[in-house]
Amino acid sequence: MKKLVTDVAVIGGGTAGLGAYRAAKAHTDSVVMIEGGPYGTTCASVGCMPSKLLIAAAEAVHAIERAPGFGVHPKADTHINGREVMARVKSERDRFVGFVVEGVEEIPTEDKIVGYAKFVDANTLTVDGHTEITAKRIVIATGSRPSWPAIWHSLGDRLIINDDVFEWDDLPESVAVFGPGVIGLELGQALHRLGVDVLMFGVGGQVGPLTDPAVMAYANNAFNDEFYLDADAEVEEMVREGNSVYIRYKDKDGCPQHRVVDYVLAATGRRPNVDKLDIENTGMTLDPRGVPVADAFTMQTSVEHIFIAGDASNQIPLLHEAADQGRIAGDNAGRAPDIRAGLRKSKIAAVFSDPQIAMVGESYKEITARLGTCACFETGQVSFEGQGRSRVMLVNKGLLHVYGEQGTGRFLGAEMIGPNAEHLAHLLAWAHQSKMTVAQMLEMPFYHPVIEEGVRTALRDLNAKLHLGPEMIKHCLDCGPGC
Question: What is the pLDDT of residue 319?
Fold first, then answer.
């Protein structure tokens, strides 16, 4: 067995692992990166980028279907060529992955160890039985993988995950989506708009990542206007029948129903890839899911020379968070024992559905857990149904809630479903990270007519409820009609 001694070993070559490797390299040349699978981050290969390609195709279809609302009538029926749709998705996906691979190829060959690592002890790793690595510091950046109930294995190749969708050569006729979270909503709605018959089932009433009951209820109704979504479904039976899946369930009225679909798409969550690392040999403190407990600002675990980053950390499984965590973990692994807190940015999350969903800062659930349901905070709101620019563009669906702290007037966070939510969320996230008050946010410029004026309406409502500004008036004279 080959034996190596190194200052830093990074386990994983995805977004967090690459960030950790480069950050550690700024402090020492003695760094190795261990990767057993193909290079190409989850985002580029099976996550955010290919899903947006599918969504873009769906949006093109939806724009044509919406055209008659403007008095514009297409001359012929829209024809969706599933093979052409998927060919573009895969071609562009491969292009994005290629950029990542090019970056990996620039890493010296001697720094890349191919295989899957396991801990022998807190400083020693073995890689597929061919290499033993003794490292002074270690970064775990092994990512995550989809998870689903074990009983579904009986569905064979009729059970798919998002990875499988992006390998299709053509679109199927029907799909049952389990899990109306980020992945389920994005893929389910896109497939529906591309002509696939979609059923969507959830558990416990959860829709997307939302925690505000009013915003979640709005989202539930909005998606149900398009396709069947039961966020608290009672599925009684699901069995493989040839090349199809038979599903027996009770509908939202409690009536027995049954359907036969081509595929079941499991969008029921992801689990950190730490269960095959023999992590118990390190003596690290683990959470109830078996994931190492780590400091959110240093990414340091209970074993001071081991750090964890990205989806493996089970903190916030998003690319920009994985990149930030990777840099922090790698920087500290490289500079140890001079451990430093890294900048953790205000939380921002988006679902690229239509209407889009976004969350910023503290969620409603987090605020109520911290402050209770007392009058320590207030909620400002705006409906996009009557908002001027939204109506102009026929995208006037949505609800925005913004939260502010009583006494200080500090902006705490927001949850929303609505047009351009991805862009509204960025404005609000910048304000949150700057620790602005609601009054300070209202001093910022707003053009007319833009969808962002809806943010100002919600902030004015919040400022009034915090008793820091005048009561809301029905028609705002300084911002024109329909704001």
Answer: 62
275 and 264 housed in the same domain? no
Binding residues for FAD: 52, 142-144, 311
pLDDT the model gives residue 475:
56
| 393-436 confidence digits (pLDDT tens) | 999 999 999 999 999 999 999 999 999 999 999 999 999 999 99
CB-based contact 404:411 (threshold 8 Å): yes
Q: Per the annotation, where are the binding residues for NAD(+)?
A: 179-186, 269
Q: How many CB atoms lie within 10 A of CB 125?
A: 26
- Is 448 labeled as catalytic in the residue annotation? yes
Residue (of 240, 217, 179, 127) closest to 401 by Cα position: 217
Q: Are residues 298 and 420 in the same domain?
A: no
SS3 for 382? strand
Q: What pTM did the predictor assign?
A: 0.90
**Distance of alpha carbon 373 from alpha carbon 356, whole angstroms:** 27
Q: Which domain holds residue 240?
A: 150-268
Which residue in 27, 130, 153, 448 is the catalytic one?
Answer: 448
Q: Is 81 exposed, middle or buried (0-12, 13-18, 19+ CB in 10 A)?
A: exposed
